């Protein structure tokens, strides 16, 4: 009887200990560096600006035209100029490494090239022209991010949200000779316009990565992708001067789904002050929107150059260096 009583008491004791452990207060989350952790709760804000020095690129169908200095089938690249743009950003940081961020990237650069020719509807002979090209690009992101530390030297910020993009390519062939058939209608010459546009909105996800070389210097990298839904448009026509009469004009519009990829690699220097941290950053970036711009095929399969241009689509991309400043302060 004593043995049974002893066993029952021990069983109740073990059960009580287990139950107490089951319902005890869980340990507080650690914010010390470890394998994968999040920062301690804090409220901060930041504002930054970057200067971008970029060059545009397109598919071969859009990035080439016929060359007046070689044979009939010679080609010449559009070769958009390098030019300056900018990127602005602002963030509010809250909780344990969360942030809400808005960024705006803007680029607007003109290019003027010469030495092209093409066949117009007004003459079977090749007509030389100079090319004017205007590239306009705007990208706006509204995203939510989460900062994580991976050990003492590595950290990453994962983010997702919405992206809006607006791409506008305005191309003008300024012809330097006038066919006899339209000489009376265009005594001051004529030009051809070829405009391609896309604007759309959709989800974007990405990651910012940093590897600390020391407390101030770090190597940085970024990768992002988006899928946008919007409208693609193509328009063109021949404009006679000085009357402004438009002939053989064309306009087309369609709904499009356009994916994009963006990547950066660079360095960052963090200078700590009493009121916050000043970051100096620089590096190299590329961005590409796939099949974003409606255009006409460059290849003509043996047909006289310029007489047949089948509708198609072209990528739009930008690449080049960037550098800038970002201030992070306590809220």
TrEMBL record:
<protein>
    <submittedName>
        <fullName>Outer membrane protein</fullName>
    </submittedName>
</protein>
<keyword id="KW-0732">Signal</keyword>
<dbReference type="InterPro" id="IPR007825">
    <property type="entry name" value="Major_OMP_Legionella"/>
</dbReference>
<dbReference type="Pfam" id="PF05150">
    <property type="entry name" value="Legionella_OMP"/>
</dbReference>
<feature type="signal peptide">
    <location>
        <begin position="1"/>
        <end position="20"/>
    </location>
</feature>
């Amino acid at each position: 009887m004593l043995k049974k009583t002893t066993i029952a008491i021990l069983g109740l004791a073990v059960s009580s200990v287990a139950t107490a452990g089951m319902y005890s207060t869980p340990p507080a989350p650690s914010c010390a560096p470890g394998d994968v952790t999040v920062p301690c709760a804090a409220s901060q804000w930041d504002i930054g600006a970057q200067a971008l020095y970029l060059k545009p690129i397109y598919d071969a169908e859009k990035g080439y035209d016929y060359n007046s200095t070689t044979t009939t089938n010679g080609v010449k690249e559009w070769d958009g100029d390098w030019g300056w743009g900018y990127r602005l950003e602002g963030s509010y940081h809250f909780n344990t490494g969360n942030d809400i961020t808005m960024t705006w990237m803007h680029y607007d650069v003109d290019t003027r090239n010469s030495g092209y020719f093409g066949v117009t509807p007004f003459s079977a002979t090749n007509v030389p022209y100079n090319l004017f090209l205007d590239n306009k690009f705007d990208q706006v992101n509204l995203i939510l991010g989460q900062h994580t530390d991976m050990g003492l030297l590595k950290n990453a910020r994962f983010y997702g949200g919405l992206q809006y993009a607006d791409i506008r390519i305005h191309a003008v062939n300024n012809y330097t000779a006038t066919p006899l058939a339209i000489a009376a209608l265009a005594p001051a010459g004529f030009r051809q316009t070829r405009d391609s546009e896309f604007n759309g909105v959709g989800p974007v996800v990405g990651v910012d990565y940093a590897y600390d070389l020391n407390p101030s210097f770090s190597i940085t990298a970024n990768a992002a992708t988006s899928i946008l839904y919007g409208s693609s448009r193509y328009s063109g026509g021949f404009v006679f001067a000085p009357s402004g009469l438009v002939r053989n004009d064309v306009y087309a519009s369609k709904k499009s789904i356009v994916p994009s990829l963006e990547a950066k690699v660079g360095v960052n220097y963090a200078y700590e002050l009493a009121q916050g941290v000043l970051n100096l950053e620089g590096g190299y970036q590329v961005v590409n929107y796939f099949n974003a711009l409606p255009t006409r095929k460059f290849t003509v399969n043996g047909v006289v150059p310029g007489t047949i241009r089948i509708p198609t689509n072209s990528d739009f991309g930008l690449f080049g260096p960037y550098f800038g400043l970002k201030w992070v302060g306590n809220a």
